[in-house]
Amino acid sequence: MPDPLLMKYAGQPGREAIAAYLATGGYEGATRALKELTPDEIVALVEASGLRGRGGAGFPTGRKWRLTPKREGDVRYLVVNADEGEPGTFKDRTLIEGDPHQILEGVLISSYANGVHQAFIYIRGEMFLGQERLSRALAEAYGRGFFGKNILGTGFDLDVVIHRGAGSYECGEETALLESLEGRRGEPRVKPPYYPAVRGLYDRPTVLNNAETMAHIPHIVRLGVDGYKAYGPPILYSVSGHVMRPGVKELPIGTPLREIIFEHAGGLRPGRAFKAVFPGGSSAAILTAEHLDTPADFDSLAKLGSMLGSSAIIVMDDTTCIPAVIRRTIEFYRDESCGKCTPCREGTIWLSQILDRILEGHGRMEDLELMDNVAQQMTGICLCALGESVPPALRASLRYFRDEYVQHIKTGTCDVAPAPVAAGGSA
Amino acid sequence: MSSAPPATTVRLTIDGREVVVPKGTTVYTAAKQAGIEIPTFCYHDRMAPLGACRVCLVEVEKMPKLATSCTQEAGDGMVVHTVSEKAQAGQRSILELLLINHPLDCPICDKGGECPLQDNTLKFGPGQSRFVEVKRTYRKHLRMGPTLVLDRERCILCWRCVRFGEIVAGDDALQGFERGYHSQIATPQMAPVHSKFIGNTIEICPVGALTSATYRFRSRPWDNRAVKSICPHCGCGCATTLNVRGNDLDRTRSREHPEVNDVWLCDKGFFGYEFVQSPERLTAPLVRKDGALREATWEEALDRIAGALRETPADAVGVIGGARSTNEDNYLLLRLFRGVVGTNSIDFRTDTANPLPVSSAPWGLPGSIADVERADAIVLVGCDLTEEYPIVWLRVKKAVDRGARLVILNPWELEVARWATHSLTHRWGAEAALLEALAGRRDAVEVAAKSGAPADRLRGAAEALAKASRPLVLLGRTAVERPDGAQVLAAAEAIRDAFPAAQIGLLRGRANSGGAQLLGLVPDMLPGYRPIGDADARAAVEAVWGRPVSEAAGLTTRGMLEAARSGALKLLYVVGADPATDYPDAHAWEEARRGLGLLVVHDLFLTRTASSADVVLPVLAYAEKAGTVGNIEGRVQRQDAAVRGPGTARSDGQIFSAIAERLGTELAFASWEAVFAEVAALIPGWAEDARMAPPRPAPVAAPAGAHDDTAPGPAADGALALVVGTRLFDRGTMALRCPGIRGQAGEPFVGLHPDDAARLGIVEGTLCEVRSPRAALRLAVRALPGLHPGHAYVPRGYESAPASVLQDERGPVAVTVRPAGGGA
Amino acid sequence: MTARVLSGGTLAEIARLRGLYPRAQSALLPALHAAQDQVGYLTPEVMEDVADALGLTTTEVSSVASYYTMFFTKPVGRHKVRVCTNLSCYLNGAEQVLHHLCQRLGVAPGETTADGQVLVEAVECLGACEEAPVLLADATRHPRVTTAAIDDLVERLR
């Protein structure tokens, strides 16, 4: 097990001070990049590192950078997605609060590599502490000449604006984020024809990367491809729910779920049995005990009809009422749906109404098939990933935990616990 | 625009049919071209695809998911299925989801019978719903002003109306509020919509969420008869369809004309029809007896007119009006008055005291309305475009979206100023100097000082114009209808001098002014824009008419009024005009009226002019007669009769024939088409939908700085320069009888810059006496932050407070504005 | 147009924000935050001021404001307590946290106390699942909230 790379210093007191960051080799990667490497060489490095975007879709970062047209004189932007909102995910927040310069250094290198002179970091509105630390870090980095005009005497200019969101999960979707950054409602744009790489912010070519992705970049430059890969390559798993030691676990990608949950997260509470897990945030299909030996990587989880997503692992033990958890999940998507496209707007409200009815004891057996069918109909026809995130967990729960739904329909309740009161409802 | 790549096509297969389309075409458009119908809601072919409703799903082979055909570009070799099980299942899913929260109150919904949601459900939707939950409900039937009714329960959130406001009209009238399943179309605090184009959102709404307050519950679509018509209001001549049920005129809809209104109308066009069937319409002739107008027979009325015409020398007879008649009516007017009576004192320009000669400054656009969107710089001078010619604004908006620079020069800020590259308000009267500065002939700093426009913006505007290759200068009445109007025109010509590709339009005229000008209802022109001094032209007319035509130019409206005052003009014949209200000097009109021996008026209503007439003849409105009308492009368009007129009302043309007959000349034509055919013999190219723009003489720019500014400067003791502006929604004779228009017009007012109001110690809303050397009006004060300081803005078009009582035909006036106090 | 509600300080801040972006409209969210910080919530007049300051229409500003959950268009408490109720917190007793807090303050979720001091909201994942159940009292995150911690918090907020 190698040392942590991204999390090595995260959370050390005073880490947001630039002196602390510099003392551990901070901005060395950026200095090397700007002084010794050409932008193309950096893109090649990142491509060779195998880094895949850490926002959820897992698109290879180097390839994304290559897709951005780099015509001489064209204005292009870098936008960092720090609008972390996928339920169960807290790795970006941990990095932003715990080691903000690591992200800023990534922004500097990535901007240089992509010929960008204006970058924006879109940070979640509710992330108050993160905003404060990131802003302080950025101000200090400006003061030391890592941002602004003629950075490190290389003639490279870069300005960074920290842009604060205002409460919308959908703004984590890349095109909705751009809309929001342009001062509009956070509704997604239709893709195709235009992807942000070609036509993004203000219709200009835009490199859009997740905050954690940025944190990887300095290490790739500093360590080289092989040195970086020796770390796993590393990935941050956010582990939470019914585990003894929840937290961000930096591990080699592909660590089996069982190891993550039972070793690194300290296992379940005493006397409890494992029931189910969301392996990649609430947008991923839930898995059961039989899947625990699956490596937590993109391909292995996809094979099970689930996904790594934002690598947020939410563990549920045997005190969990699955239909109630699914209802909470659907309510979340219902309330965060932007309302622009039909299937997401109408599908989420319909499904949540059916689930309400079942949990209130008015379910019908045909509701199970109906829910599965509505969810199946939604699949593949929504405008963006939010709507597409609704069916997997619901459908998996109907497959693996059908008996729990049946029990609610037949008896109006279940063994585990009275169904918790719906959030937002009367307390 | 960058140079287009070489045109290429792609070949694809849709439902087994091979289709070849230009590269860049969407699958939806390609399918449509092949006659294959795919359901849509959010997609509208005048706006970029949105991909929101998701109903246009198709299966594309080798693609993992269904694609929305409205956003999917057709690719070479692509194989598309619109009716495969998978595609149909996708379409069905969307329709099921759209219907779960739709109230299905079709029996009481105006849209029922012409509803895309109904139609698409029938063709592509599921046979039954599986939804057993409680539907989303909202408070029903929100009135969003005098014309729009919003039903949020019916809304399927296709966003068409929102995008219309953003993309087409640029007025942001309706927006999406809240989000998710609470998303709704609204205005802030559900205030009445602020728009001049909201009728279009009713037209493009694919459900009954947006309905018309005036058409509401009046008819079912299948009971409506559709009649082709032309909008009778501003002069753009937008193509419309009138819906008639029995003999009731129920609504006006837009009709597509790519060169004129595209598929849109303004709200005056949509909602300005109810005057036609107002109970206040005149139904029988009125003849003055013993000092009072009394109902009379047609015989009596026509005999009185014919008798007077026989007794009055031709040069003591004048005719004004014609802008509200058809071309065929107007042609008979010419044959009667020019041919039979023998006067050339004919003028359709009844609302100006300072008309420029048609030969040098014809009214209208240099090209088609559609051509406006192809200009790369547009300069609006003294033309309040959305108030005067709203449909032209939509073309300007498109031009701006394509990168054209918009420069606005006006004494008050226009509501579209936020779309302008440079919007300059300035002292009224400085237009010529400003135009010369734009043309690079005069120093911006010097002109800025004179005009009150900021020098940097003026310089910026000149630079913007200098970069243009196809500039278009549109002059409005505010700029040119002054004694020094010719100088403004000459300054505009200087721009044509500086930019040879520049074009100039004089945006003027209402209703059929374009046709009246084309037929020569002016003192010095013959049909087809030919000068009356042109012997060949006269000979051609004489040959058809069998009558001599005098070569001496007659009098303009102003000349006729002056002649009436001096006793030289005895008989004035007014055709569909109200100079007592509209001629910009009510005092001058009244004096002229006193000098007349006989005043004859054709009108729909007992206007101010008609009330003072000796003979009033009830005529048919536009919806009651067939014929052609011309617009600001010089385009000749046909309108059909939709409803029967009231009482014994006749068309103007029938009346002229009847008078001619009494004067011993047969002027009977079998039909309007026969008249049309005779016009065609006189005007080469005269045909339905032909556009015959007036010839525009080569630029004759005045020497730089030749003119002197004549507008009164800031007057002493608080006097302000009076500027009179046009409002789309007013309370004139017709608008008063259209609830949808009247309701939006509000009360008449005087607008002051807040600094002037503060200086005069007047707070907004105060009733004030606005006094000019001519007379006074009592008007409430409205603060207009966009008005250039030193001016008082009074809207025209309010029957109860005609701005013309303040005006002086000899030139600009200064007014004082003082709180009205109690008793005055 | 002169601002009707926003202070010179807030307008200066909005002007500064506007300068950060290539297009003025991008400053809308930060400008609304600044306006809300001054006034407490976004009244129609506040939104008109913001629209004027950025050259936007009031309709657009109101529409955007209505989209985001952190913007309030009605009066709300001076203090905002946001209780995460999403999965990890839900699995760790968020419902009980919310219930206890509401009971102590005598409000339902989404309501403000009668004295206008405290707004309680049930919110979605705050991205601090390792601290579940978690709540945000104004800008301060409270990890692993217990009923005793809620009682303390309520004392401090009142």
Largest interface, chains and sizes: A-C, 61 and 55 residues
Question: Any idea what the shape of chain C is?
Answer: elongated
Task: Kindly name the structural category of chain A.
Answer: alpha/beta
Structural shape of chain A:
globular
- The helix content of chain C, as a percent range, equals 40-55%
Q: Distance N terminus to C terminus of chain C?
A: 40 Å
Rounded mean pLDDT score of chain A:
95
Q: How large, in whole angstroms, is the Cα Rg of chain A?
A: 22 Å
Radius of gyration of chain C: 18 Å
The helix fraction of chain A, in percent, is 40-55%
N-to-C series of helices and strands of chain A: HHHHEHHEHEEHEHEEHEEHEHHHHHH
Number of helices, counting only DSSP H or I runs of 4 residues or more of chain A? 17
Beta-strand fraction estimate of chain A: 5-15%
* % residues in beta strands of chain C: 5-15%
Which structural category fits the helices and strands of chain C? alpha+beta
Oligomer: heterotrimer
Show unreliable segments of chain C: none
* Largest sheet: spatial strand order of chain C: 2-1-3-4
Write the layout of secondary structure elements.
The complex is a heterotrimer of chains A (427), B (824) and C (158).
Chain A: H1 18-23, H2 28-36, H3 39-49, H4 61-67, E1 77-82, H5 91-98, H6 100-113, E2 118-123, H7 128-143, E3 148-151, E4 156-164, H8 174-181, E5 206-210, H9 211-229, E6 234-241, E7 247-252, H10 257-264, E8 274-278, E9 287-288, H11 298-303, E10 312-317, H12 322-336, H13 342-359, H14 366-378, H15 385-388, H16 390-400, H17 402-411
Parallel strand pairs in A: 1-2, 1-5, 2-4, 6-10
Antiparallel strand pairs in A: 3-4, 6-7, 8-9, 8-10
Chain B: E1 9-14, E2 17-22, H1 27-33, E3 57-60, E4 67-68, E5 79-81, H2 85-100, H3 116-124, E6 142-143, E7 148-150, H4 160-169, E8 175-177, E9 184-186, H5 198-204, E10 210-212, E11 225-230, E12 239-245, E13 248-254, H6 267-271, E14 286-289, E15 292-295, H7 298-311, E16 317-321, H8 327-341, E17 346-347, E18 377-381, H9 385-388, H10 390-401, E19 405-410, E20 422-425, H11 431-438, H12 444-451, H13 455-466, E21 471-476, H14 477-480, H15 485-498, E22 503-507, H16 513-519, E23 525-526, E24 530-531, H17 535-545, H18 557-566, E25 571-575, H19 579-582, H20 586-595, E26 598-603, H21 608-611, E27 615-618, E28 627-630, E29 636-639, H22 652-662, H23 672-682, E30 720-725, H24 739-745, E31 749-752, H25 754-759, E32 767-771, E33 776-783, E34 791-795, E35 814-819
Parallel strand pairs in B: 1-5, 16-17, 16-25, 18-19, 18-21, 19-20, 21-22, 25-26, 26-27, 30-34, 31-33
Antiparallel strand pairs in B: 1-2, 3-4, 3-5, 6-7, 7-10, 8-9, 11-12, 12-13, 14-15, 14-27, 23-24, 28-29, 30-35, 31-34, 32-33, 32-35
Helix pairs in contact in B: 2-3, 4-5, 7-22, 8-22, 8-23, 11-12, 11-15, 12-13, 18-20
Chain C: H1 8-20, H2 28-39, H3 44-54, H4 58-67, E1 79-84, H5 87-90, H6 94-105, E2 118-123, E3 135-137, E4 140-142, H7 147-157
Parallel strand pairs in C: 1-2
Antiparallel strand pairs in C: 1-3, 3-4
